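Write out a record, fold above all:
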Amino acid sequence: MDFKHFYSDFIIEFKQIYGSCVRKASPVSLYDPINYVLEHPGKQIRPAILVATALNFKDIPAKDLYPAACCVEMIHNFTLVHDDIMDNDLLRHGMETVHAKWSVNDAILSGDGLFAIALQQLDHYSDNPKLYSKLVPKVLHAVTLICEGQAQDMDFENRDDVTLDEYLEMVEKKTAHLLSVSAGMGAALAGLDAEAEQLCEKIIMELGIVFQIQDDLLELTSDPDVMGKSLGSDLVNRKKTFPYLFSKQVLSNDIWKEFEKKTSKLYISLNGTKPARKVLEDNFIFDRIGEVITLRHERIQNMISKLPEGKRNMFFSMVEFVMNRKH
């Protein structure tokens, strides 16, 4: 089975299980926001990667995979709740963010609660000390790196000398590592040796980086109704995204100054974001970033070819699924 067909079956069952993970209702100021987050219609790629990786190598009962899958999705969601506060985002997947619907205090508390509940999901594996001692450090290390990545991302807002390499390091920590850990946890649940487990993690790590580069690109090029969020906020805030830093690196000084003029808040308030986007389009920035994505895609394909022949298709199709996402 390829990942697309696996995902269509998986997501229906997983959403039901994930949405019912938290059974407490009181205090409502804590559990209403948590349950709201659990019901969000996110793509839930991380748990799908975890389960698909495990099943690709071993036939394992779903009941032994879903606790870990719920854990990584809760970790992802708890970071988003807090990120939305820091970024002052009002929409997530076309729905109000937690702090917009309730309050900042409620969002902080529910995010903290969700983190604790995520770790509790791993209690399912506590009777297997060897496996448990693998899974818990992976998750905790991932959270530490996510926090480091978020700190770097915030630091970038006050710096004008951020490089592409620094940006990619931040992306690896903030976005790619939890995707990679999802594959690593799936491999661990399947009982793979350390070398095979690390290869799975490296494949998905690279995919996570491409995922973010493409997400940055889609923020500038997609239909807002498709993305489920307001586009152009990165331009308005001059956020150090891949397109921004790539453009700064490759555009001439005169064209860069023109771009900076057209991304000022005053200019955008009067003219919108189309003039700034046109500067990038006229200088083939979107096309050139597409070439970067293609090269990284080829690197992933080469890594997948190192897997046993009968175990490659799931990963090839996994990459194809993520690379073809439109929102």
The first helix runs from residue 3 to 19.
